[in-house]
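Researcher: I'd like a structural prediction for the single chain below. Treat it as a standalone chain; there are no partners to consider.
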Amino acid sequence: MQLKLKILLTAIILTTIPLIGSATVPCTFENKGLGGGPSFKFDFSKEECRLVETRDGSVVTLTVQYPEMKLIGARVVDDSVVVLRMSHIDSERYDQNGIVGTREPDRRLGTIDIYDVGSVEMYRFRGKDGEVVFVTNMGNTYLAKKACGGRRICFLSIFDKPPGS
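Model: Treating it as a single chain, here is the predicted structure.
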């Protein structure tokens, strides 16, 4: 279990590194969703930009080959695929800790707080950047949720095994 969490944390950190860019980056996705809002900008090559999926710019999806951390096109998931979805949030109203509130963890594994929420386990810890990360063990998938850069929320799925297997 601890190894998978380390892998997950590594994946979160490595997949969010390319998100840091400037206003002159070659890859911009305008937010045409309800109410508009900030755009997503990535410092990717033109080939990599074509691999980013979005409908209206309000949510973007990146599919990454793990452990190489190479951006790839959408494909059938397996244990070597990490899917990162990002959407914008109102950082003044969004409460990352809202799901657990002031509740104490059911148990701890080092610096990882573990909560039993219904029939799933939820892990809470701080990433290298100090942001809170929530990881939910969904059976064949680990789903991570993390605030990225203040105005974005990132959802990251790491597949332990292909769905249905």
